[in-house]
Structures are given as C-alpha cells and as structure tokens.
Amino acid sequence: xxxxxxxxxxxxxxxxxxxxxxxxxxxxxxxxxxxxxxxxxxxxxxxxxxxxxxxxxxxxxxxxxxxxxxxxxxxxxxxxxxxxxxxxxxxxxxxxxxxxxxxxxxxxxxxxxxxxxxxxxxxxxxxxxxxxxxxxxxxxxxxxxxxxxxxxxxxxxxxxxxxxxxxxxxxxxxxxxxxxxxxxxxxxxxxxxxxxxxxxxxxxxxxxxxxxxxxxxxxxxxxxxxxxxxxxxxxxxxxxxxxxxxxxxxxxxxxxxxxxxxxxxxxxxxxxxxxxxxxxxxxxxxxxxxxxxxxxxxxxxxxxxxxxxxxxxxxxxxxxxxxxxxxxxxxxxxxxxxxxxxxxxxxxxxxxxxxxxxxxxxxxxxxxxxxxxxxxxxxxxxxxxxxxxxxxxxxxxxxxxxxxxxxxxxxxxxxxxxxxxxxxxxxxxxxxxxxxxxxxxxxxxxxxxxxxxxxxxx
Length: 458
Known about the structure:
By secondary structure, the chain is mainly β. Helices cover 3% and strands 38% of the residues. It has helices spanning 3-12, 196-199, and strands at residues 19-23, 46-47, 54-57, 61-67, 83-93, 96-105, 129-136, 142-152, 155-160, 166-170, 188-191, 212-217, 224-228, 238-243, 257-263, 279-280, 284-287, 314-320, 323-328, 343-349, 354-362, 367-369, 374-379, 385-389, 396-400, 406-412, 427-432, 438-443, 448-453.
C-alpha cells in the first residue's frame, strides 16, 4: 500500500477502527468444493517465532523462499524490493514436477532494489518494476529464481489465465518523459512463469492504459475483467475486455479486442449502495473511446449523456462459479465518494447482466474482522478465504470461514521500525500451491516470500 493511501485512510479514520462486514459470505465460495469442508474456527493461537520472522499456529511451519537483496539465478543480480501480488502454477523443470511461483514487484522510481534489466525481458530500461519467478520442487526447495519481466512500473496485482500464465498489472498511468520513463506505462503484460522468454515484455495495449489493479478471466467465454485502483476523484471504472482470440493461449491477447466499461443505470457511484443483496438488472457495457488514454485518462473520457459508473479503490478481482467478483476496498465522502464504507464485494453475472452487492465492510455491521484494511484475498483449498491485512500496527493473514468466523493464520514478526516505535510491513500475494498443501505469502517490506505448511485439512 502506498504512503498516499495510508494518508487517506488515516485522514478518514479508517485505520485502527477495525473492519466489520455483513452479507451473504457464502457467496464468496461459489464453485469451490472445499467450502463444504468448513467447520473449524481456526488452528489455535499464534506462537511467537523465536527467529522473529513469522508467527504461526502450533503445528504449522514456514520456510523462507526468498528475501530482497538475495541473489537471483543466472547472475541476473539481486532479488528486487516490494513483493506484492503472486500466483502459483503447476509445471515441470528438468523433467520433474515443480511449482512456478510468479511474483510482482511494486517498484516505483524510488525503489531500493529494482528488477534487473535482462535482454529480451525488459520493456522500458527506466522502469524499476516487474516480476520474478521461482521454480520450487516438492519440498519447496528453490531450484531457480529469475527475472520474468523487467522495465515495467508499480506492478501491484494481476491474475492467472486459464492457460497457466500470469497477467501482471501496472498500477500507474505515467507517460514517457515522466520519472525518466522512455515509454508510456499503465498496461497489462503477460508472463510465462515456466519460460519467461516465451512471453517477453509486450504491453497488451488494447486492454487499456490506466491504473490497473487486478484481472479475472471468464473460463468459458474468455472475457477478461479488469479493476482500476483510483482513489482520488474521478474514481476508477470496472472494465471488461473482449479478446479477438478468446481462450487462445499464450500470446493470444496480443491480437487485440474491444475494451468496455461498466455502466449501472441510475448508479453513477457504487459507494452510494449500502444494502447487501441490492441487485441491479440490465448492466450496460460501453465502448471506451480511447483505450490508450493518449490525451485524457479513461475515467475522464466522454461516455455519452448517460455517463459511466465509478467507484473508489477497485482492487481484488476473481472468478467463482459463473460470476466475477470484484472489490472496492474503501470509499470516503470526504474524498469525494457519494457515501462511506470500509469495503464492498460485488458479484456480476454475465449471463443475466445482473450486479449484486454481496458484502459491505463497515464499522456498524454485525461480524467483526479484528484487522484493518483487508487487501489481497484468495480462496483456500481447505475451505474459506485467506485475507492479507494492509494497515497500521501488527499485520496478519486472517482466515475467514463461510459462516463469517475469523481467525489469525499468520502474523508478521519483522519489526521494520524501532523498539520504541515498532512497525510491521503488510502482507500481500497470498496464494496456494496447486495441490493445496502449501500457502505462499509475501511480506511487502522487507520483501520476503514464505512457504507455509501444516495440517490444512485437519
């Protein structure tokens, strides 16, 4: 989370207030058989780590896979800073089964350790962001760790494709000449974690140039849904991309397509909707006038007399069952939103063109999340959600069951402040191995990637 966002939260009073939510939590687990196995409310209290890295429940253990400043394979340089979004893919390495872990680095121009530039994998030599990829054997031993894409900027989140690649998203819209950049930024790039040279460093320009956050792909139609993380007015939009070659595999998105933005008739700002279960029929999709935003950011472009639907801080996005879910992490009227909330989760059903508010986070609802500022989320194979905390004070990964019960799964024990004024970095990129036996998660700073194993299906 950027310093700017922390300042916004602090001014609004959200930090330290605690997050609560209400709504049909079971909606979040649509299409997952594991949801039927929920029954526990956690794995017990967190045990302080004598090594001061990661506190876990008894019976669980962690392994440090990577830390910023370590050495990359093939003499590529140092492990970059600011570990963020991440996904795990099944693959092979030298004939053996492995997990390819693809990891974003949300590096701005001030980043301490940039992603090293590598010939054939670098978009803009002035960009310090990008992705690295780790190949792990069955015991989570690191077989290799290398650059997957370099020369991009502020790689925050993204999402996996049905064909096993990662779409990494630039959360910026800086143009060439800004911060020394030689090319425009604000694009999505496809990354092949198994063989990065197959994907290269090609911007998917037809998918739009804006402050990207996350994507989700409809596995039946091949439509790609995209969120825009804009927290200063005018707020971001929710998009869909209609590929010319849907579900075409690696490189198919380069063939272009049509970018559209969501219009909910009569709802110019999603924050104004406060009642869970609120449903809107006849959602419209409007062609984006200029996806490259050559002169005007997309959210400021003319979408006609009916306007377009905006929302503050659109972040997480994932596919479940037959619907796409997306998150507005907070909205505050003091910053220009129509109303206040600490987070919303929306469901869009493409078949019926219906949008439904599933969850509202806020201070006055009936299920209390002990943390603050929930950010990255993933579905856990053992049932429920894993939620990365991103706020002030102690930082946790929380589990949330289908019944709304919350438990602490991990706590960052790395103090990056002082004994008198301790501070802990946020968690990010929580994901699970394809077999469900390992949870991978990042500490944003100091950049650290952990593998957590234990009795997940107890």
